[in-house]
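hey m, so remember when u said the tokens were messed up on ur end? i reran from scratch. heres the input so u can diff it against urs
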Amino acid sequence: MKVLIIGAGFVGSATAARLQELGHEVTVTTTTEAKVEGLTERFGNAVVVRGSDRDAVHAAVAGQDAVVISAGPSAQQSMTPEGRAKTYREILVDTAENVISAPGSPYLVGLSSLSVYGSAANHLDAVDEDSPTTDSDDPSPSSFLLMEQTYLQAADRAAVFRCGDIFGPGDPPIAEKVKMAHQYLHGSVPFAGDALLYRLYVDDAADAVVHAVQQRLTGLFNLTHAEVPPTNATLFDTISAENDLPPLEYRGEIAGPTKPISVQRLIDSGFTPSRSFDPALTKLVTPAS
């Protein structure tokens, strides 16, 4: 199978490696010319493509059996409404529109975010894929929702994963991120303090994508761990206190579920995320008995 992976970053590279190991012919994309040589050596095929470039996307998609869209905004672009407004539509929605309008009918896998639920489903006992989504006009959830709607137009050949916060080797530990929030963001962060901190290990993300491609899953799937994590404020403020720092300010621009996220639909499809939950985080905020 010929598979194009748009965005050879954290998840894209891990997915490409797994697909290549399974014998698939992989092409990855980057927006940086200087990265092409290294990516070509690693994966065999790499091209420069910006998702907002319709002609380039169409050319890359041509002849592919499957397309995985793992490109997403960087954390640095996500800390202010202005930064999100500048980049989210281009990276998420423009890319989706160009992929979906490309000639042919490859199978599609897109990566979205649990932020699409916002606080809209917090009256429920659990949040599943049929739960209401936010009507927030913040560029993060609104762009992710537009992206989802675009891919799901191809209902018979598209799967979308709503992912937790992705982490893995090379990613700063949570304690380091909290320190950076104090140092570089003056202790003010855009998300809600009462939201549950669902995370997704990069290997679970890559394996879920490979599972989708192999099984040709369609529709929406929550992708994170099944265990209930602590809230943002509970964890981050515990870490702050341990480092003699004040509690963070939670601006609530990007709300999140305060009720457990269900991953049962994904489990029923034959895949269980098994490496995303870190018990140490729960122990950190649970008093010893």
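this time it looks ok to me. The chain has ten helices and eleven strands. if urs says something different then somethings off w ur setup not the seq
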